[in-house]
Amino acid sequence: MTSITGTITSPNWPDKYPSKKECTWAITTTPGHRIKLTFRELDIELHQECTYDHIEVYNGRDAKASVLGRFCGTKEPDPIISTSNRMFLKFFSDNSIQKKGFEAAYTSECGGQVRAEVKTKDLYSHAQFGDNNYPGGSDCEWVIVAEEGYGVELIFQTFEIEEEADCGYDYMELFDGYDGTAPRLGRYCGSGPPEEVYSAGDSVMVRFHSDDTINKKGFHLRYTSTKFQDTLHTRK
Description:
This is CUB domain-containing protein. Keywords: Disulfide bond, Repeat. It comes from Micrurus paraensis. Pfam families: CUB. The protein is mostly beta strands. The chain has two domains: 5-109, Spermadhesin, CUB domain (Jelly Rolls); 112-227, Spermadhesin, CUB domain (Jelly Rolls). The chain contains one helix and 18 strands. The protein has one helix at 228-232; strands at residues 6-9, 21-28, 33-43, 54-58, 67-71, 80-81, 86-93, 101-110, 112-115, 121-124, 139-145, 150-161, 171-175, 184-188, 190-191, 197-198, 203-209, 218-227. The strands form four sheets. A five-stranded mixed beta sheet has the order 9-11-17-13-14, with no helix packed on it. Strands 10, 12, 15, 16 and 18 form a five-stranded antiparallel beta sheet that branches. The chain is elongated, with a radius of gyration of 21 Å. The termini are far apart. 31% of the residues are buried.
């Protein structure tokens, strides 16, 4: 499933789920965004360890990813948020005791921590980039972290944010570190992407803010990790 919002239900919902069933769902959203899963209703055979019937949520593309939770009974868990743009769900029922099952909604959440690697990755201002302009009322923060001894390189592919002399309405800010207390590399708005950006340390924080009026295309940037000496030292 690749839509930005949607609903997932157990088989036969809202009637009882069948016995001996295994169902899986793989949810993907835009790179640089996370998935938030909210259970609206839960009614699955109760067991202390949820050994029998259960729904299991994984933090990645398949069941090899780390487990975010295994659920049964009738108490809906708090909303679950993935750390990347992928989430995987697995529902299992054994051959006895069938209940109503579950209904869960998923939405896309901006921000979070992403890892810079030698392989180039993409980050988009909003989940519907390319289809719709960014929404009003956005406040997103991404922390891009490279491994120790490496810096972060940002290359902007597209940049179009509401223009204002001081970038006081909609803007993107870059900080040379993990959060907004780090030295600010710049605040940007208008059109025309910023120059390539290199971090001094192993991380960059990207902040995106939009107010309630005038929405533009947004931004698409690519990020990669780079050896410090590649950018700070020239060959003799």
